[in-house]
Amino acid sequence: MADSKSSNRPVIQRHHHGIGTAPPKVENMKSTLKRIWSYMYEEKGKFNLVLAIIVLSSALSLLGPYLLGAAVDKVIAERNAGTLWMMLSLLFGVYVFHSLFLWLQNYWMITISQNTVYKMRRHLFSHLQRLPILFFQKRQQGELMSRLTNDMENVSRTLNTAVVQFVTSVLTILGTLVIMFWLSPLLTLLTITIVPVMYFGMKWITKRTGKYFKEQQKHLGDVNGYVEEMFSGQTIISMFSREERVIKDFERKNEALKKSGYWAQTYSGFIPKLMNMLNNISFAIIVGAGGLLALNESISIGIIVTFTTYSRQFTRPLNDLANQYNMILSAVAGAERVFQIIDENEEKQDERNAENIKEIKGDIKFRSVHFSYEDEEETLTDINFHAASGETIALVGPTGAGKTTIISLLSRFYEIDEGTILIDGKEINTITRDSLRSQMGVVLQDSTMFHTTIRENLRYGRLHATDEEVEKAAKAAHAHEFITQLPNGYDTVLDSDGGGVSHGQRQLLSIARAMLADPALLILDEATSSIDTVTEIKINDALARLMKGRTSFVIAHRLNTIRAADQILVLQHGEIIEHGDHKELLEQGGFYSELVRAQQAESQASV
Q1: Residue among 325, 403, 304, 409 at smallest CA distance from 366
Q2: Residue ranges per domain, the chain?
Q3: How far apart, in whole angstroms, are the C-alpha atoms of residue 414 and residue 348?
Q4: Using CA atoms, how far apart are residues 452 and 471, in angstroms rounded to an integer?
Q5: Which residue blocks in 80-151 are alpha helix, DSSP H?
């Protein structure tokens, strides 16, 4: 919680790694690979089996062309149909087993990758639940979502395909070169003459595509961001009749994306054309030189056939290796981002002498409490007050004064720098966080609802509550009437953002949830800010019953909601500048009195 409300709009991050894009930056590849392996360790038997099958499948893929060439020589030499059918049967068996091995390695690698990413995702999500609140306040929601989804998906996709393909490509290139040199060193040298041409050609193309792919990603981000912004602001656009202006702005951004995309795709399209041309040139060189050697009876026709096949097996993996390596780097970079979160310090453990308390009476004392957020200036300075059991304490002051920080310290979301907080005479750090928070009910200004039924959203306050208890709490919060008018009543499913009910209705549901929890300590943070005046009267009556006998802390900017508070703490710049009840503070004629007069004047002006 924080005093200043900020909107952490999710940031959609997209990763594109391919031809023309620079490989992602990796800080420590060796260390990250070791950590990924720690999640794969239980699958090491399957992984070793996959590596063995990769070797076998690569050997079979190399054996096929060799047998094809041998078959040609056998048929030419013996002119025997039986020999032809025998060689064809052998080839058939080689390719069948090669396909079977490919299927097995894919099947087991998918199993390995899914189990590995499952463990990583579970570890990350569990770790996120144990991080302190301050961590989430410093991070954008979209950025965290990207690590849990995009980065994890990068790891999964790479383990599924790129690792196997990378190893296969390396084995294929090395195996092909060895066999080609064994068959004919001269033809081998002629075949690899295209490698420098391929290298410089690819370098020339990627140098140009890199620029346009970067521009394309920039313009794509501009278009996506603009569309998202316009969709969220469609009502304002219509109200001010700015549709034509919006269309023109979109066309300008869309035109820039089209131009960058055109040149990026045009240049990258040269690559398969270049590879095809080089393959054809290699084929022509082998056939031409091989034909001359065959005329001199230096090599056989079968070797020429074998070389034409091997030349294609040699050039294709060369092209694939760069993309596969980029995919692996992308996965390692994604894993590093995941491990950065996992390496974040968890919320401090409870002290060894901390005890679980079954019941809190609600006697709260702050004694000379000081607090600051990490290395920032002090947020709270020398805070002193005593809230007797059952009292209502109102916190008043401008945004950033420290109101919500006091509540956060009471909830042990943060630890104080100096001073003491006592609950029923016990220092707060001698009470376990779980037992403390389980006896606190919170109603925030921004009510959080989950993607489930209204009944289960209310039951979040007390998981084992009966349906009758849920409905009783809803009636007390004046939410029962509008709930029963919904198509499915209490079984109506809310969207993850509470969509389907108004903001004010979500606050009614939040109040009902707090009532169902039956907490010893109650915290209301602008709990009635989005409720109309008529409903507010009903809610204040329900809140009065809820707060009766409980120590309650109320944060409010609308001062008419806190007139009956037992104590009002007026904060400014992290200090309590005034302290008393409504009548006493008015008589003092200080800051609180000025706030009341200002709000009264504003209210009269609006009538």
Answers
A1: 409
A2: 28-183+321-346, 185-298, 355-439+553-607
A3: 10
A4: 16
A5: 81-129, 133-138, 141-146
The dihedral of CA 144, 145, 148, 152: what is its sign? Answer: negative
Number of Cβ within 10 Å of residue 587's Cβ equals 10
Closest C-alpha among 319, 62, 54, 34 to residue 163:
54
Q: Which residue has the higher pLDDT, 2 or 542?
A: 542
Among 570, 565, 575, which residue's Cα sits nearest to residue 591?
Answer: 570
Cβ within 8 Å of residue 345, ≥6 positions away: 131, 132
Q: What is the pLDDT of residues 302-346, one digit of tens each?
A: 788 887 777 777 777 776 776 677 677 778 888 888 888 888 887
Answer for the pair 443, 514: CB distance below 8 angstroms, yes or no: yes
Cα separation values, 229 from 184, 232, 233, Å: 64, 5, 6
The SS3 call for residue 355 is: strand
CA distance 578 to 585: 7
- Going by C-alpha positions, the residue among 339, 341, 333, 338 that lies closest to residue 135 is 341
Using the structure block, give the residue that is written with the tokens 């209204």. 454
pLDDT digits (tens, 9 = 90+) for 10-26: 333 333 444 444 455 56
CATH superfamily of 28-183+321-346: ABC transporter type 1, transmembrane domain (1.20.1560.10)
Q: What is the pLDDT of residue 367?
A: 94
Nearest to 66 by CA among 166, 169, 178, 170: 178
Strand partners, 392: 552
3-class DSSP state for residue 447?
A: coil
Examine the pLDDT at 569 and tell me if it is beyond 90. Answer: yes
355-439+553-607 domain in CATH 3.40.50.300? yes
* Cα–Cα dist 505/478, whole Å: 10
User: pTM above 0.70?
Assistant: no
Residues 20-59 have pLDDT tens digits of 444 555 667 788 888 888 888 888 888 889 889 989 988 8
CB neighbour list of residue 540: distance below 8 Å, 6 or more residues apart: 528, 561
Q: Whole-angstrom Cα distance, residue 522 to residue 444?
A: 11
Q: How far apart are CA 405 and CA 371, in angstroms?
A: 9
Residue 534 confidence (pLDDT) above 70: no
H or E stretch at 567 = strand 567-572
